[in-house]
Write a structure and sequence with these properties.
By secondary structure, this protein is an all-alpha fold. The protein contains 11 helices and no strands. Helix 7 packs across helix 11. The longest helix is centred in the middle third of the chain and has 29 residues.
């Protein structure tokens, strides 16, 4: 998303506006409407019941591309011109001029994206068949299907706490950057 947002903000190419329009159009399509086409694609690729099949639809993000494009557009043009005069190429511009002010926003996007995909239930349940490739959130269902002994709510509660613990710890570690992204979002 970083490279795509940078390209849409910094470079001029044929069809840029139309391509960006179609990327933003993806934001209006509900994820449940894409279940069948994504499933067909994964089956065609021969990746059914793999961890890669769970991750492939989440490799690109229309919102992340839009967010990064907006961050690149907010960087003052004079700063970019000064870096170009000093001999910076596009890679140095991205790394040294655009990414430092974008770090809090990218961390906030990363945390929210990881939390969203970590808690995803329907897609992993559809695309996996075995417990070895199923993520923890889809595996929690097993605690409610224990056959003749019934649902073990105490085990389910303990397992749920173990599943949310990594997200909670990640939020605590990046809390300052997460809050900074919201504080700097409206300041020019």
């Amino acid at each position: 998303i970083t490279l795509a947002g940078f390209a849409f903000a910094h470079f001029d190419f044929l069809g840029k506006r139309a391509f960006f329009f179609f990327i933003l159009l993806q934001l209006m399509i509900p994820t449940t409407a894409l279940l069948s086409p994504n499933f067909s694609t994964i089956r065609w690729m021969g990746l059914f019941d793999t961890r890669l099949a769970i991750a492939i639809p989440d490799f690109g993000s229309a919102f992340g591309t839009f967010l990064m494009r907006q961050i690149v557009l907010e960087v003052p043009k004079d700063l970019v011109d000064a870096a170009v005069v000093d001999g910076s190429n596009w890679w140095h511009l991205l790394r040294n001029v655009y990414l430092p002010p974008a770090t809090p926003t990218l961390i906030a996007f990363g945390l929210s994206s990881v939390a969203w995909h970590w808690n995803e239930f329907l897609w992993p349940l559809i695309i996996t068949n075995s417990d070895k490739s199923r993520p923890l959130t889809a595996g929690l269902v097993r605690f409610t299907q224990l056959g003749e002994i019934g649902a073990q709510w105490s085990l389910l509660s303990a397992a749920t706490l173990m599943v949310i613990a990594p997200l909670f710890i990640a939020f605590l570690l990046f809390q300052r950057r997460f809050i900074q992204s919201f504080m700097h979002s409206g300041i020019k």
